[in-house]
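User: I'm new to structure prediction. If I give you an amino acid sequence, what do you actually give back? Let's try with this one:
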Amino acid sequence: MTPRIYMDAPLIPGKIIAMTEGDSHYLKTVLRRTEGAPVLLFNGIDGEFDGAISTASKKVLNIKVGTKIREQYDEVLSNITLAFPPIRHARMDFLIEKATELGVKRLQPIITDFTQGKNFNAAKAFLTCKEAAEQSRRLSIPEIAPIMPLKKFLATVADTNLIVLDERLANSSSSCGLTTGSNTTILVGPEGGFSEPEFSEFARTGAKSMKLANTILRTETAATAALAILGARIE
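Assistant: Good question. You get back a string of structure tokens that encode the predicted 3D arrangement of the chain. For your 235 residues, that looks like this:
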């Protein structure tokens, strides 16, 4: 397969772009590509372009942008924000990877009362998003918002369709009103669930809820399942 590379730069036919150290290592060392090898480029704005390695020296790898082969379009979940607490490293990578593959627009890490790890590595999350987008043929990568407390976050989503992935809310159902409307936020809780004050806050904001299974799901499982259901309904 022709490798795909996300570029944080305008894509203009004929332009020569210097690859980052990470992308250079991937192309030269991991994939063993040399001068003339084809590469696909995208930046989340201009669509997807073919290209070719124009220079592959020990210190420099440049790519020449070719012609546009796909126009930019909205992803399946282009109006969806996924809000989630930081979880253990491998599971965090899984959640971010699958959310990216499914087309979510925005990732919002949050701190809840029962959140165990309150640090979020945004740089690592970006690299996970980048790799997932490159491999899944997605034309953009999700926005990664700064981590914030749940209560502060809820104040920013008052005018959105907020869906909490917890079956204990009074209005919980198997469908929970998942819609194709704009500005929907899917909120998934930590391993210990939400606290009673947080449930009270959800009730105050009029949040909807969704029951995904008759078993208790891990954070990353619940998030992936909900996004897959919503994506299927939109398509």
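You can read the tokens as a compact description of the fold. Here is one thing that stands out. The first strand starts at residue 4 and ends at 6.
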